[in-house]
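Supplementary notes for students who missed Thursday's class. We covered one full example, reproduced here. Read the sequence, then the structure, then the short commentary at the end.
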Amino acid sequence: MGAPKPPIRCREIGDSDLDAITDLLTRGFPRRPRGYWSSGLQWQAARPTPDGYPRYGYLLEQDGNAVGVLLVIYSDRGTPAEPQIWCNLSSWYVEPAFRNYATMLTRIAQRRPEVTYVNISAARQTWPIIEAQGFRAYCSGLFFSMPTLSLAGLSSPVETVRADARTVDGVPSDEAELLMRHARYGCLSVVVRSTAGPVPLVLQKVRIRQGRFALPAMQLIYCRSISDYVSCAGTVGRLLLRHAAVSVIIDASGPIDGLVGIYTERRGRKYIKGPQPPRLGDLSDTELPLYGP
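Structure (token representation):
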């Protein structure tokens, strides 16, 4: 009989694990270049993480070698007096020989009852598995809006928030920090100066693939409410022209009143589990702005 294999253990990812985790994810997602993962992990290393929660996620380890990984992204969307801890369950990969241990990752990553967990990139074939874990869909699809066809807010000036800004006039400090932080991630953070007050928005450049063609567009990463975006869609549409984009993609569960566009459920379903209610229009500090589409 051969010697027994070393036991598998699951633990938090530390700074010293990042090279091994990057290699593992590059093998698991061959369409993603290594730089995609190393860049995203650098942003995770630099961003604020709530005290007492993992910075990167969890790994499966055998005999000192990483054989599985689940990235998580924690954020606090509450106040110091009333924290609201959210966790984006992000990229997951386990080497084929160790798939029987994959549930160790998901079980440990979802064990905190005070945390609201979200999965914003679930592949269609995993939907039944995710629902069996207690998740419910809070977003059914995507709305591809065409803001250049809107007249809403056309007279409102728009201000781009720079990555090196220190304040944003008229915007609360925590929200201003969100805008500046996402500008550092490479997103387009703006404030529309409407007559009703400042409207902060975060947009991220993406490409809509149609056959062999890819049309430039923007994903709505953050807004206070979808109605805020609708109220200034015309101004946003003119802004998009300067960035060579044709559409703003919005999380939705149906067509959006006041906007011209197309709704689809072929992609975009998102899941949630935990004590906090979901809100459409807020993908801030998730895998999308940190790692990219």
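Commentary. The chain has two domains: 8-138, 141-268. The mean pLDDT is 92. If anything here is unclear, bring it to office hours.
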